[in-house]
């Protein structure tokens, strides 16, 4: 019997990987891990300071890595056009798309419709737009893998974050339908829903979040990165369709 550890990470080396929202939190942790496994990675985020910090950190830790990127906003059509030009010119296409860029949002009584639109454009249209561009390229090569990072908010339906819940529920449905649409094209689709994760999106302070991690009430970004690697490490015959991760003491 083949050693199961032979599978882990086997599908990453030299793969062309695009990570939206790859400059902080979960996205940065995914970038670090996939770079360490030999992936050719492109990252981006909307904040230039976060982008430069993440880019410099990865190059410092993995000086021989092949890393590309730019500070862009997924809601800006010109930015999106530019990043796909960078992808095509430097990576020559795409094998793996990690849709991760998203923003927190409150309820309908705490926010306004103008801001909702920006949240929807980021959390939903960003995923759809990048999936569209990725599928155009993947179907030509009859292979590819799209991983959508969702949220357990689609399960808990918390009334304090109604707009965010709406976007993540949309991503749950989109992921299921997209897999059915592109399955025959040789393209895999996986959907990962983390529970509470330490990030800048949390309202708790960093100290409070570290305390929750110690109490097993919060995950670290690296936990989600490992789940992404697990999805990508499966043989072609095996799809990880959906995955939920929760802190041990987060009961939903």
Task: Walk me through what this model shows.
This protein has 252 residues and is α/β, with parallel strands linked by helices. The protein has one domain (12-195, 221-245): NAD(P)-binding Rossmann-like Domain (Rossmann fold), CATH 3.40.50. The chain has helices spanning 25-36, 48-61, 77-91, 113-141, 153-156, 162-182, 206-214, 221-232; strands spanning 16-20, 40-45, 67-71, 96-99, 144-149, 187-194, 242-245. Strands 3-2-1-4-5-6-7 form a seven-stranded parallel beta sheet, sandwiched between helices. α1 (25-36) crosses α8 (221-232). The longest helix has 29 residues, at 113-141. It is globular and about 45 Å long. The protein starts with 15 loop residues before the first strand and ends in a 7-residue tail after the last strand. The mean pLDDT is 92.
In short:
The chain is an alpha/beta fold.
What is the terminal separation in angstroms?
38 Å
CATH architecture: 3-Layer(aba) Sandwich
- Biggest β-sheet: strands ordered side by side in the sheet: 3-2-1-4-5-6-7
What oligomeric arrangement do these chains adopt? single chain
The total beta strand count reads 7
Class computed from helices, strands and strand pairing: alpha/beta
Overall mean pLDDT: 92
The main sheet comes to:
7 strands, parallel
Helix content bin? 40-55%
